[in-house]
Amino acid sequence: MDHYADDLAAVVEHLDLHDAVHVGHSTGGGEVVRYLARHGESRVAKAVLISSVPPPDGADRRQPRGLPKSVFDGFQYQVATGRSAFYRDLATGPFTGSTGLAASRWRPSSRTGGGRA
């Protein structure tokens, strides 16, 4: 995420942007948040986060209730090996159940080589 934020800062500086509106969706929201945290808001008018996954979302000693890295690794693998099946499964998988986001218990369907946990 630091690398993404630094890349964004390089683009903003190269284009000499001022009063920019940064819009981030999903992990792009994390990039916007990290950009603001690392590079400040002097060139930013607004930040819009849409269904974002701002950093940090993973579990570590500072955020023990975050998702384990294996969940994100699984998402990356599934997108690389079966993108359309991943998106179909995502729409019916991790946002179900009485506790809301259940991604830590979600596994891909047989279409992507796995099964529900």
Characterise this structure.
By secondary structure, this protein is α+β, with helices and mostly antiparallel strands. 43% of the residues lie in helices and 14% in strands. The chain contains 3 helices and 2 strands; from the N terminus they run αβαβα. The protein has helices at residues 2-14, 27-39, 69-92; strands at residues 20-26, 44-52. It has a two-stranded parallel ribbon with strand order 1-2. Helix 1 (2-14) crosses helix 2. The longest helix is centred in the C-terminal third of the chain and has 24 residues, at 69-92. The chain is globular. Mean pLDDT is 77; it is low at 97-106 and 110-117.
Descriptors:
117 residues; alpha+beta; two-stranded parallel ribbon; 3 helices; 2 strands; 43% helix; disordered C terminus
